[in-house]
TrEMBL record:
Record's protein name: Predicted transcriptional regulator
Transcription regulator TrmB N-terminal domain ranges (all copies): 28-97
InterPro entries with a match to the protein in the record: ArsR-like_HTH, TrmB-like, Tscrpt_reg_TrmB_N, WH-like_DNA-bd_sf, WH_DNA-bd_sf
Organism: Halomicrobium zhouii
PANTHER family from the UniProt entry: HTH-TYPE TRANSCRIPTIONAL REGULATOR TRMBL2
Length: 125
C-alpha cells in the first residue's frame, strides 16, 4: 500500500509533541478527519450499517458511503453482507481492530520511509 503523506500533514505531525490517533491516521493514510471519525465510530459500533453510521455521525448516507469506501481501500474497514428475514440484504461494516490498524500504520509508514531513503540515495546521480 503506497502512502504519500502531504508535506503539510507530515510537517504538522512532526511539530506536534503528542499527536493523537486521528492526526497520525490522517497523515499516514492520507485520509480526512471525517474518515477517521467513521473509523473510530466503527470501533465502538461493529457490524453497523450505513444508515446507523449516518445517524451516529450526523452525516449524509452518501458521505458515509464514501468514507467507508476509503477506509476499505486503506484496509481499515471490512464489509459483510447480511441477509434480511423478509428478503434482501444489508451490508454491515466493522473497523479493522486497533492492534491490526497500528501494524498497518507501521508498515505503511515504513514503506514510505524506505521510498524516501531510496530517493535520498539517488541524489547526486
Amino acid at each position: 500500500m503506497a502512502v504519500d503523506p502531504s508535506p503539510e500533514r507530515f510537517r504538522d505531525l512532526m511539530l506536534d509533541d503528542e499527536p493523537g490517533l486521528s492526526e497520525v491516521m490522517a497523515c499516514v493514510f492520507g485520509i480526512q478527519e471525517h474518515e477517521v471519525r467513521t473509523y473510530r465510530t466503527l470501533l465502538d459500533s461493529p457490524a453497523s450499517t450505513v444508515e446507523e453510521l449516518a445517524e451516529e455521525l450526523d452525516r449524509d448516507r452518501s458521505n458515509v458511503n464514501r468514507s467507508l469506501s476509503t477506509l476499505r481501500e486503506k484496509g481499515l474497514a471490512d464489509r459483510e453482507r447480511r441477509l434480511l428475514d423478509g428478503g434482501g440484504h444489508v451490508y454491515q461494516y466493522s473497523a479493522t481492530p486497533l492492534d491490526e490498524a497500528r501494524e498497518l500504520m507501521h508498515a505503511t509508514l515504513d514503506e514510505w520511509a524506505a521510498s524516501v531513503h531510496e530517493r535520498i540515495d539517488e541524489f547526486g546521480d
